[in-house]
Design goal:
- There is one protein chain.
- By secondary structure, the protein is α/β, with parallel strands linked by helices.
- The chain has one domain: Rossmann fold.
- It is about 40% helix and about 20% strand.
- It is built from seven helices and eight strands; from the N terminus they run βαβαβαβαββαβαβα.
- The protein has a six-stranded parallel β-sheet, sandwiched between helices. A two-stranded antiparallel sheet has the order 5-6.
- α3 links the parallel β3 and β4.
- The chain is globular, with a radius of gyration of 15 Å.
């Protein structure tokens, strides 16, 4: 059967973002890429990810930034392997600097391109963030791999990630990977992780 990879995008992106499309191109004929639009609210996003994991039964989660933050929470409970690119493990700090109205950077399936960052959203992230490590298990320490951009100016959480997981990788890029970086670093690592977990 064809492998299934669930890709979770960053906060201002969508399932139609460049990294998702690059993964789809790389894995064409080898794996199916599921790339849903994630709700801005983390509890709703986690519920959606959980539901997709139950119904679609992906073999691997791949995330970037906020998508990696959410993926870590889900896989720490269900044991799925995951590749977490530039995980932003303190989303409250990211959001606190960006209060106000914004537009998503890529098209969303429902056509709604506006979102608002307010204190209620930050408080919800704070609650989720506080409990993000509650379900980490020692037996999963090598099933969750971290991929960190050497020129990432947004998220700097490799030391925190290392407290919980053992597999650390680097690539010579920034916070949001380019198509070429996805094809050169993200996708081959995802392929290797899939093979290692068989």
């Amino acid at each position: 059967m064809t492998k299934r990879i669930l890709f979770l995008h960053g906060f201002f992106a969508s399932g139609d973002c460049a990294p998702a499309r690059a993964l789809q191109q790389y894995f064409d004929g080898k794996a199916t890429i599921l790339a849903p639009d994630l709700p801005a609210h983390p509890k709703q996003a986690i519920e959606l990810i959980d539901r997709i994991c139950r119904t679609e039964q992906p073999d691997l989660l791949v995330g970037n930034s906020n998508g990696s933050f959410l993926a870590q929470i889900v896989v720490s409970e269900n044991g799925l392997p995951a590749l977490l690119g530039n995980p932003h493990l303190e989303m409250t700090s990211f959001l606190s600097e960006r209060i106000g109205s914004h537009e998503y950077k890529t098209p969303r399936a429902d056509g709604r391109q506006q979102l608002t960052i307010d204190q209620a959203l930050i408080d919800e992230f704070a609650e989720v963030q506080l409990h993000q490590w509650d379900h980490c298990r020692p037996e999963y320490r090598d099933r969750v791999w971290g991929l960190f951009g050497e020129h990432d100016t947004v998220a700097h959480y490799e030391p925190l990630f290392r407290q919980h997981y053992t597999q650390i990788y680097h690539f010579p890029g920034g916070h949001t990977p380019t198509d070429e970086e996805v094809r050169t670093y993200y996708a081959p690592l995802a392929e290797r992780l899939l093979a290692d977990m068989q």
